[in-house]
């Protein structure tokens, strides 16, 4: 088992602590948090070992799970990598693209693995259809959340939209050509609502909307491609796949058939896969362990985390132009 330690014991950090303790791939060694009073309370309640410093924790483990605020990601990740430790780092990977590039170079130099916590990649509704998404040409996403003061220190793009940016980049195999966007700050000092349009070299267009001041939660993405429509509900963990195929010579009596202006007939059918229940955070941690064991590239690599951040920051730049 891999010895693991957690840096940061806030809301998400406590979830990581619990899941690492449950995992069969890790031995949870302990954690460190700068809030001493809170850290001592967590250690007392759950029996986790509390370390006195970042350095002590890094020295005691094989894998450092970084769940600190984003501004601290780079420095602690740099320390861990230079100590020869593998890193799991929550999204966004760092504050700047330059910092992300430095971490990628350091990880390569020290021969360690790194994975970024883009958890929606492990959402069962997305994994159930990801292989069916083939050259989408239009993508529409809505990620709406009820207001929560936690996380409002960063723009909604880095708080919410970056999940969809990463998912889109994982299925659109083309370079970004152009980005346009607008954002509005309603309650926070940074935008709470944002809309972005991403155009790719291959002609694909993605339209993304995110809000953290909505009256209800919604996390839906729709993929449109040749002869298929795929819908993913990340919140309800549901998906729908609607495909079209040439009409057989003898169609079923109940077949749904469309005919275009040229007289071409297509049959509509549903191909909805089974969606197994899972814990997406546990899955991402376990697949990272597997990447370390098998010396393979993690599912969400540091480079992919950097690319998602790069697009997110370009969207934010549009707000001031």
Automatic annotation (TrEMBL):
Location of the GFO/IDH/MocA-like oxidoreductase domain: 156-216
Gene3D superfamilies in the record: Dihydrodipicolinate Reductase, domain 2 (3.30.360.10), NAD(P)-binding Rossmann-like Domain (3.40.50.720)
Cross-referenced Pfam families: GFO_IDH_MocA, GFO_IDH_MocA_C3
GO molecular function: nucleotide binding
Domain Gfo/Idh/MocA-like oxidoreductase N-terminal: 3-118
Protein name in the entry: Gfo/Idh/MocA family oxidoreductase
Protein species of origin: Aquimarina algicola
């Amino acid at each position: 088992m891999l010895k693991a330690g957690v840096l940061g014991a806030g809301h998400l950090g406590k979830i990581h602590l619990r899941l690492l303790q449950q995992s069969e791939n890790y031995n949870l060694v302990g954690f460190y948090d700068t809030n001493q009073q809170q850290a001592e309370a967590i250690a007392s309640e759950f029996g986790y070992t509390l370390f006195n410093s970042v350095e002590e924790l890094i020295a005691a483990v094989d894998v450092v799970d970084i769940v600190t605020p984003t501004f601290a990601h780079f420095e602690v990740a740099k320390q861990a990598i230079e100590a020869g430790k593998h890193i799991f780092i929550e999204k966004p990977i760092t504050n700047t693209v330059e910092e992300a590039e430095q971490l990628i170079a350091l990880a390569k130099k020290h021969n360690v693995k790194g994975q970024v916590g883009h958890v929606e990649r492990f959402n069962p509704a997305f994994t159930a259809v990801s292989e069916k998404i083939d050259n989408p040409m239009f993508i529409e996403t809505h990620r709406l959340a009820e207001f929560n003061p936690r996380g409002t220190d960063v723009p909604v793009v880095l708080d919410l939209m970056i999940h969809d940016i990463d998912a889109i980049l994982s299925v659109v195999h083309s370079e970004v050509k152009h980005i346009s966007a607008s954002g509005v700050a309603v309650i926070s000092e940074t935008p709470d609502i944002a809309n972005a349009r991403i155009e790719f070299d291959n002609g694909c267009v993605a339209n993304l909307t995110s809000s953290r001041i909505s009256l209800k939660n919604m996390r839906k993405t729709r993929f449109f491609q040749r002869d298929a429509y795929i819908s993913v509900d990340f919140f309800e963990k549901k998906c729908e796949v609607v495909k079209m195929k040439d009409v057989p010579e003898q169609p079923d009596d109940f077949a749904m058939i469309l005919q275009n202006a040229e007289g071409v007939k297509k049959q509509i059918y549903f191909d909805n896969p089974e969606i197994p229940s899972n814990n997406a955070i546990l899955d991402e941690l376990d697949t990272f362990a597997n990447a370390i064991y098998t010396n393979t590239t993690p599912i969400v690599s540091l480079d992919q985390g950097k690319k998602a951040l790069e697009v997110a920051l370009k969207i934010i730049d549009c707000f001031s132009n």
